[in-house]
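Journal club prep, notes for RB
We'll compare a predicted complex against what the paper describes. Inputs for the NAP case:
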Amino acid sequence: MPRILIAGCGYVGQATADLFHAAGWDAEGWTASAKSAATLSVKPYPICQVDISDSDQVAERRRTFDVVVHCASSRGGEFESYRQIYLNGVRNLLDRFVETKMLFTSSTSVYAQRDGSWVTEESETKPARDTGRVLLETEKAMLDRGGTVARLSGIYGPGRSALLSKFLAGTAIIDPESDRFVNQVHRDDIASALFLLVTGELQERQIYNVVDNQPMLQSDCYRWLAQRLNRPLPPFRELTGQRKRGDTNKRVSNAKLRSLGWTLQYPTFAEGMEKSILPGLSEFDVPLSPKC
Ligand SMILES: NC(=O)c1ccc[n+]([C@@H]2O[C@H](COP(=O)([O-])OP(=O)(O)OC[C@H]3O[C@@H](n4cnc5c(N)ncnc54)[C@H](OP(=O)(O)O)[C@@H]3O)[C@@H](O)[C@H]2O)c1
């Protein structure tokens, strides 16, 4: 039975570990905290508390794996936590699991284009923030050692959608002057992409964008939600400050991954919302704004 370690068994990590387990793999998940490990103890595979940024803790682990996926997240965080969790985490895993197939879940935030253009894995990467530069350095460490990089776009899925949460909380605004494309992907499609990359033969030292088929203007997402939920459109107002300056505007292509045979269960935001998110709307812990 092939063995896989999911280092960072959070929102995406769990879905991925579940998928591999269901496919007959011997999966193991790691979390940073004892609390998360305890919560996940109901899983039909072992969950261990291991801090991947601590080289001693990683080096002490005795089990070996055929595949290791770095799926840990700094949950936003600042430069130092990026450095610890991504760069040091990946280096520690590479040092401990030599000659093991490795995959790093990075982010499409490494693309800084602002002109709405399409970007592929070949496009320029010039992240605006130093946290993005840490991701690039981590990608390089992974690629140099023969690993694979999956650049994930904005994750949504059951109980999680930044756009829907803002819409429901009444904090969304539409600024036509700084409207931009958003690139999203459903959690379960990420898991199937990682499964394809791990089980395929072609992916060493390669980068793949993991994003759905249809980038959407942010305002169109809100329009779709307003119409579907029969609620008012967010107010039109000028976006100010950091957000206005910091946001990128690009359309991320998934053609490379699809050319390997990746098919999406939720190819568009509308399909993901209809089939997966809206049926569980009560999972979104925000007050509903008044109906039209
Ligand atoms: N959110 C997005 O839209 C987005 C977009 C692009 C890329 N990504 C990337 O996608 C990946 C998965 O994100 P996610 O949303 O599934 O993350 P998540 O739900 O926040 O889960 C993160 C997991 O990593 C664990 N972790 C954190 N620090 C660790 C450490 N030092 N050692 C071991 N485990 C550690 C956490 O454990 P605890 O629960 O104990 O803290 C948790 O299990 C990350 O690489 C993230 O950067 C996310």
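Talking point for the session: Residues 8-13, 30-33, 36, 50-53, 71-73, 75, 85, 89, 105, 107, 152, 154-155 surround NAP (CB under 6 Å).
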